[in-house]
Design brief:
Elements lengths: L1 H28 L6 E2 L3 E3 L5 E3 L9 E6 L5 H17 L6 E5 L11 H11 L5 E3 L5 H5 L3 E2 L1 E8 L2 E8 L15 H10 L14 E2 L9
Parallel strand pairs: 4-5, 5-6
Antiparallel strand pairs: 1-9, 2-3, 4-8, 7-10, 8-9
Length: about 210
């Protein structure tokens, strides 16, 4: 009886570990173009909760951007992110920015400092704190900035483009391909973005559980 119980316990532990690994693999994979994006409900810098599916400005879709305060790449793109919001919010595709960094690993990315940075830069869009570091895993975001362009279709948000904002983070005057702008304009004209995927360039998202990434 004793040995049988030990065997059952070992089998249960193996099953639990398998389920955890499967779940981890799912999170690591994240969204692909064509996937339906799940809703999220995160705290904005004004203290209010913002839900993707209840965000009124997202009439046709949303430009979801994982970013932060401290990363040089994220800083280089701040003005361009503001311009994206100004250009496309009125057309039904607002920017929704999300900071998923652990402030213990990146103190400049704390919620209080998010408020300061947003005020300094005059952010025109929600700047949400993924405090439990759940949303970035579901999306599969790896870098700051990392863009997920969503189109509203039948009440759902469908991923239409994933990747970088443009092809030159260092010099805005040398940009040749405005990936996100081109992708949104394609959707507005009834076409699918081409390309619909590019490699996001930036700092890794800071998470204690994924320090090796």
């Amino acid at each position: 009886m004793f040995h049988q119980n030990i065997k059952i316990m070992k089998t249960t532990i193996i099953l639990i570990l398998f389920m955890m690994l499967s779940l981890s693999s799912l999170f690591a994979q994240g969204y692909k173009v064509g996937d339906k994006a799940a809703d999220f409900n995160l705290t904005n810098i004004d203290g209010k909760k913002i839900s993707l599916y209840n965000y009124k400005s997202a009439e046709k879709g949303a430009i979801v951007i994982f970013t932060c305060n401290h990363c040089p790449y994220a800083k280089a793109y701040e003005d361009r992110i503001i311009e994206l919001d100004k250009e496309f919010k009125a057309k039904g595709f607002p920017v929704i920015a999300i900071n998923s960094n652990d402030p213990e690993l990146a103190p400049e990315d704390s919620y209080d400092k998010m408020i300061i940075r947003a005020n300094e830069k005059g952010f025109t869009f929600p700047y949400l704190f993924d405090s439990k570091q759940e949303v970035y895993k579901i999306y599969g975001a790896k870098r700051t900035p990392h863009v997920y362009l969503l189109e509203k279709n039948g009440g759902n948000f469908i991923v239409k483009y994933i990747g970088a904002i443009d092809d030159n983070y260092n010099d805005v005057t040398a940009v040749d391909q405005k990936y996100v702008s081109n992708a949104v304009n394609s959707l507005l004209s009834g076409k699918n973005p081409d390309p619909n995927f590019t490699k996001a360039i930036g700092c890794t998202i800071k998470d204690k559980n994924y320090l090796k990434e």
